[in-house]
Amino acid sequence: MIKPSIPSGTRDFGPVVVRKRNYIFQTIRSTFEVYGFQPLETPAMENLSTLTGKYGEEGDKLMFRILSNNDDKLAAAKAAASNKEMSSILSDKALRYDLTIPFARYVVMNQQELTLPFKRYQMQPVWRGDRPQKGRYREFYQCDADVVGSNSLLNEVELLLIYDTVLTRLGLQGYELRVNNRKILSGLAEVIGKQELLTDITISIDKLDKIGAEGVRKELAARGLTDADITTIEQFLAISGTSEEKLAQLKTLLAASETAQKGIEELSFVINSGYAPFNTAPIIDVTLARGLNYYTGMIVEVKAPATVKMGSIGGGGRYDDLTGMFGMKGTSGVGISFGVDRIYDVLEELKLFPEATQQSTKVLFLNLGEASARAAFSYMMQLRARGIAAELFHESAKMDKQMKYADKRGIPYVVILGESELQENLLSVKNLVSGQQEKVSAAAFAEMTF
Amino acid sequence: MIKPSIPSGTRDFGPVVVRKRNYIFQTIRSTFEVYGFQPLETPAMENLSTLTGKYGEEGDKLMFRILSNNDDKLAAAKAAASNKEMSSILSDKALRYDLTIPFARYVVMNQQELTLPFKRYQMQPVWRGDRPQKGRYREFYQCDADVVGSNSLLNEVELLLIYDTVLTRLGLQGYELRVNNRKILSGLAEVIGKQELLTDITISIDKLDKIGAEGVRKELAARGLTDADITTIEQFLAISGTSEEKLAQLKTLLAASETAQKGIEELSFVINSGYAPFNTAPIIDVTLARGLNYYTGMIVEVKAPATVKMGSIGGGGRYDDLTGMFGMKGTSGVGISFGVDRIYDVLEELKLFPEATQQSTKVLFLNLGEASARAAFSYMMQLRARGIAAELFHESAKMDKQMKYADKRGIPYVVILGESELQENLLSVKNLVSGQQEKVSAAAFAEMTF
């Protein structure tokens, strides 16, 4: 007999954790809904032709592929010339790696019926064969909201507001909505005259926190940038002050780039349009360069409150050609994603889960023999009809044992229908938190709240 | 460019369908909760050692295995002597095939912390490589409730009540809760003196509807049963009348079998205990033999209303040794499962989905230029704060185009903030269903329900 286990990097979620996770999901979902987003669900498996090449070489490697159980394919695989060929014979499907590609695939497949702009949200697990470590799992949920088919910057504003609304509703304070625009970074490379080094430049810039200004300078020099280039980049990194001041400095520094000016204008609208009554105003962060391979406009990253060491708890941006890879050109998308596992850890650390998330059985009816059980069953069904979760102990047993069950399960009320209660037609209701016990009539019981 | 597609047997669920499915899930979930069941979620992938051999040979074949992407394993697989060996080298994980085995695995892994009886529910997709056909998919949801660690028949009563409650809440009438007990079928074989033919007998009995009494007689004879045996079986099949009458007839016919008497007693308690105020009383069906490989007590099957050709929409039973396969002996389980896809089809056919399941965006604010959009945005945020889903059209466009969007999306109200409304500080609210339009003050708007 092998001791049962689960695959490394995966998790069971017991009742307490499921309820806490559902609280997060429900907060996100109801916010998406109130903003007019619509739910979508796609299959766990996608054809490899849909997924391959969409996540870089690393992604292709980390995808979980489904093994064909067709005997012919096994035979053919044996004759394969390379491991790569062997894999491709053995498998034509893989598990969902993110929610964006399946969304793009869905939009293209259903373009005839969809009303654009299509605002969809999707909350489903994805699978990645990363090496498991603290906070990194092979199965985890993504919660995405995307708008496809609209170039309007109002979408960016609304998506930032969704972050702000959800995090506020979760009771978080001190989170940061950091925003940037890809066009500003492109403009910087353009001003220097080295657009081909955009990625090199942003990778170095991104390390500012870790390696400091001197470190960045060294790296940039090593990557072939001149002193003059580096001076411009340092001026770029030195941008500071209020959002208005930052925007003004950017405008001057990147005056030579039309692209940059467009990016500054977009950024200005997104954080500064006056449309949005943010609880926590977004912050311009010109070093923010996530998703540079696909984002073309706004880039956003959400940082957990500084009091918890967690880093990013969400991110997103605009990608001008979301569906082009599936043959539907010129359709722009913009979206955000919530990192639910990390948000969970943040709420846990800050003790922000409301007690109500653990509402489970409210009332346990003790089982004190058949007459008691029959009376209890009837009262219990009344509570359930009122939407109050109730249980009758499964068997007639010593009171001690039943009270212990209530205690272990965290059930706050116990109802006792002993001989005297049955004779008097009353119920004894004990509050296990306060220890108080009272006898009530059936009529009074029918009105009690728990 | 390959036209994108999804794997055969899988489905995308668009907004309308997700909302209808969520209505079913939510009805089931809230009923499970009110009966004191607790949520559990297990990983999509399980180790093959957990799954293999648990679902018969067919199950092992239909499981979706995960291909290892370890290059050493690919090389080793090439040298494998058989396809079976090759598969087992290439894969050590597979996708969840049902929810019962992962539940048993979870119970065994967490036995130290669990309070027994443990009443859990689980609503997650499972994957099976069946040949896809109408109503049969390779990815589908199961919704299970099980109690582990209690022999009390009160659990059976409660599980039947859950079926009754859920189906009633879904607005279904005319469904049938058919119940039987494995011990009664065993007792029949025992009375005949041919316990080894139990499976043969029940397979034939199960075909009564299809092949008629004469067909059953022929089959039984072919399986080696004597005329006397067949006469007993025919008497068994002829049992009829009210539940009390059926139970009395069974008692007499199977008087010689202690096992049968125990089964009759259990069945009597389950359907006849007087505990349960069923909306639709369970029916004794002595031919019911599903899950005979694992069920040891009650067997239940739920039939859709006869007006829809659907057959079973749920089923379950008691299995005396749920966790024995993972080394934890003597722990009994009893559970039920809802067939959500079929329930969906039944509700669709009978037009039982409430309109409210499609509640999405209630109010569209027209975008009539910047001044209008700014005012609209502010009113829109007020609605959202009140929990009312609202949208501002993403760009300033012709009114026609915006009205068409509202129409296609099924948004019932449109708010117009034209020049005159802005000047008068009023809002024009148009009900697109009735066609009525009225001008209201900001204060009145803040009180409106949609």
Task: Report on this structure.
Chain A is an alpha+beta fold and 450 residues long. Chain A folds into two domains: 15-42 and 103-349, BirA Bifunctional Protein, domain 2, CATH 3.30.930; 359-445, Rossmann fold (3-Layer(aba) Sandwich), CATH 3.40.50.800. Helices cover 43% and strands 18% of the residues of chain A. Chain A contains 18 helices and 16 strands. Chain A has helices spanning 15-34, 48-51, 56-62, 71-78, 83-90, 100-109, 154-169, 182-192, 198-206, 208-222, 227-237, 243-253, 258-272, 340-349, 370-385, 399-409, 419-424, 442-445, and strands at 38-39, 45-47, 65-67, 93-95, 118-127, 139-148, 176-181, 283-284, 298-303, 312-319, 333-338, 363-365, 390-392, 413-416, 426-431, 437-441. In chain A, the strands form three sheets. An eight-stranded mixed sheet of chain A has the order 1-5-6-11-10-9-7-8. In chain A, a hairpin with an 8-residue loop joins β9 and β10 (312-319). In chain A, α1 (15-34) runs antiparallel to α7, α4 packs antiparallel against α5 (83-90) and α9 runs antiparallel to α10 (208-222). Chain A is globular and about 95 Å long. The mean pLDDT of chain A is 93. Chains A and B meet through α1, β1, β2, β3 and α4 of A and α1, β1, β2, β3 and α4 of B.
Query: What is the count of β-strands of chain A?
Result: 16
By CATH reckoning, the class of the largest domain in chain A would read: Alpha Beta
**Structural category of chain A:** alpha+beta
Quaternary arrangement of the chains shown? homodimer
The largest pleated sheet of chain A is described as: 8 strands, mixed
Low-pLDDT residue spans of chain A: none
Gross morphology of chain A is globular
Arithmetic mean pLDDT of chain A? 93
**CATH architecture heading of the largest domain in chain A:** 2-Layer Sandwich
Kindly report the spatial arrangement of strands forming the biggest sheet of chain A: 1-5-6-11-10-9-7-8
Family (chains A, B): Belongs to the class-II aminoacyl-tRNA synthetase family.
Subcellular location (chains A, B): Cytoplasm
Enzyme class (chains A, B): ligase
Catalytic activity (chains A, B): tRNA(His) + L-histidine + ATP = L-histidyl-tRNA(His) + AMP + diphosphate + H(+)
